[in-house]
DNA sequence: AAACTTACTGAACACTGTTTAGTAAACAAA
DNA sequence: TTTGTTTACTAAACAGTGTTCAGTAAGTTT
């Protein structure tokens, strides 16, 4: 009786087909252009079919946002080889910034858009992906504290402060709130990040 | 010949009527519920009429965003009485945070949503409101530098770093990316802000 | 071969922003 | 006052959106 297994497999493949169609659309045309009908066209199915595999559009966006988190976590892997905890923290920041610049739509989806988070709210679930990613940062910050590189004893608070600064830079840039600065955005953000690192090295 | 003047006055009043209808709707029902038809209903005019006073919905949102900036700038006025520049900077941060907590929809409109900024982009104009507000911050930072409270010589960079941190905190909170923290959001943000202040006092 | 189940879709519903043709009132010129 | 012109407004339509549902055709089981 391998039929139910095959059906389950086919179901998974259909979900994958829909998600990849959606991802292709928004990585080329931008998120606003990703409608259920456009996705249906892209994968050559009817719009109604998508609702047999996803509860609504938010749930589809939530799945995309999960895929994006896998990609970010994956880009963090090189930091495992770094010995010095402060160097690890700095490299994490650089990778985070680079990810945001190279994948602005994905970053927006992960940390700015409300769509993926709304699907969690309505089934009052926790934001596991965010939780896990912040856990990674908090761990590195804790190691900095243990090594004496950071004096503040609360790794959660210190971690949130660091995350906020880097996210703030990215969010202001992605949502076009940095038009008052002449400098090239990438360079500007890199410079401010280095300034921030220097500041916490002395003051945190 | 006071007719053209009266007409101009009536035109301004109509714009005001539309804007206030729109503001009332989103301050009670949230931004998603603000449609051109809803505004039209609210002010008892036809939807098409709105387009005689605003180019499109983005321009309407842009006007609302301008009104919000007047409100924020207004809340900054008390800082003029503070002598110590570092205390001024800290109080600015507290006011900024309070504004964001008390007016989440307005903050979102001013610093996160793309709608108001898009109207600037298409007539390639500069973001005056943002420019002016950041100018205020930069001025205070410069005074901190002049007083020796901040060592870093570049007020623009330092100002952007400070803005990014505070905006990051607010943006993560408003877009529901802080669900992993048990603590009450307001308290958490206040604590992290105080930690940040302590950090820049020592390290910036 | 008949009965049942599953996968899918066309068409509709209730919205959205926006445009356009047409109307009625206000104003200007005769 | 009557005519012509401008202004202010709207009904209706267009093209799009997310979502639901009745109906169909194929796959599966009895």
TrEMBL record, chains A, B:
Keywords: DNA-binding, Transcription, Transcription regulation. The keyword Phosphoprotein does not apply. GO terms for molecular function: DNA-binding transcription factor activity; transcription cis-regulatory region binding. It comes from the Bacteria. Residues 12-72 form the HTH tetR-type domain. The keyword Transport does not apply. Residues 35-54 bind DNA. PANTHER family: HTH-TYPE TRANSCRIPTIONAL REGULATOR RUTR (PTHR30055), TETR-FAMILY FAMILY TRANSCRIPTIONAL REGULATOR (PTHR30055:SF212). This is TetR/AcrR family transcriptional regulator. It comes from Spirosoma profusum.
